[in-house]
Design a protein that fits this description.
mainly alpha
């Protein structure tokens, strides 16, 4: 195995573990702490208590989507270090995200003031899919740019 690939795998695995720990930490907050955090963020957008409550619902769902979007980026980055076609990478990344989202919501069932929500699993999984597709597009764009750069260098050498 290529030493560079091994180093990338190790770094990405460490980042995935850090991401998982972060998600676990947020989920491990009791209901009061979790609500307090999201309400503070929501209050940046309005001072009206009714609007803050309304905004808070979206902030919470956006937080789920975003944190799992990062997970999708990380999962796909790890899978990129293996010789797997893009479609399989996307499927595996989605399955990994779905499994972690499911365990995360089950974990919340045991936390005071929290509840596991099936809709959050769906939102989390959509975040993973979006992050994975985004990373796939980035990787493929880099390949195209490199290929075009190589073609230009070959043309210069011919002249």
């Amino acid at each position: 195995m290529n030493k560079k690939i091994l180093i990338i795998r190790i770094v990405v695995i460490i980042l995935i573990i850090m991401w998982m720990y972060s998600v676990f930490s947020f989920s491990n907050q009791d209901g009061y702490s979790s609500t307090s955090l999201s309400m503070r963020i929501s209050s940046l957008f309005s001072k009206d208590p009714e609007k803050i409550f309304y905004i808070d619902q979206y902030i919470r769902k956006l937080a789920h989507f975003s944190e799992y979007g990062l997970g999708g980026v990380l999962f796909l980055s790890l899978l990129k270090t293996f010789n797997i076609i893009d479609e399989k990478r996307l499927i595996i990344s989605t399955i990994l995200g779905l499994l972690y989202a499911s365990t995360d919501e089950i974990h919340q069932l045991f936390i005071n003031g929290r509840s596991g929500q099936f809709t959050d699993v769906i939102i989390d999984t959509m975040g993973v899919i979006t992050g994975s597709i985004f990373m796939c597009l980035v990787i493929n764009s880099i390949k195209i740019i490199r290929r075009k750069g190589t073609e230009k260098n070959q043309e210069v050498c011919k002249n």
